[in-house]
Design a protein that fits this description.
12% strand, two-stranded antiparallel ribbon, single chain, alpha+beta
Amino acid sequence: MEYVLPTLQVDIISDVMCPWCYVGKRRFEQAVHQRPDVTFDVRWRPFQLDATIPPEGVDRREYLKKKFGDRAGGDMYRHLVEAGKQENIPFAFEKIELSPNTLNAHRLIRWASTAGVQDQVVEVLFRAYFIEGRNLSDKVILADIAEGAGMEREIVERLLENDADMDLVKEEISLATRMGVSGVPCFIFANKLVVMGAQDSAILVQAIDQAMEESREAVDFFESPPAAN
């Protein structure tokens, strides 16, 4: 009989304008690499750090100044830049001119799941924003990213021009808030074990092992024969 690797579902709640989510993605990938005996069913879930940003985005310098006041500047990125270097992410915050409304990007991520390229699209969105400084509010750029991942550009363009799945994405974001998620990334293992923040890969490995162990115990409980009277 052919051995089938056990599968672990992992839901990752994130926002593509969140630099710590990019760091968290790298650390999760390291954890996955350390557990080759597990098949991972990874599902990227939406969150918006700021849903009040208009659809066309806003000037990033003005946005940061308004949000962080005197703290807005190069120093606020120092820790992130160092974390990025450790994870081979060459953050280029100076290239970012606009802070985007990420709702359309999350719609694209949702459609990418159906196309089987969700993780690839998430990776390119992070890279486009944090390394290349591209405007994720621009539907043309989102269509470029979709096409580059092998998705049908014409279909994506048509979906972006209407409200397809808009309510579903907003409802997922609302659900995350009702669950108590106030910051991202948030990793949910097997629908029950939660790890908040861009934790070290060792912590994520521990969470993977715990979730797998609990899953095995549940299977053993239901598959064990009833005790004799």
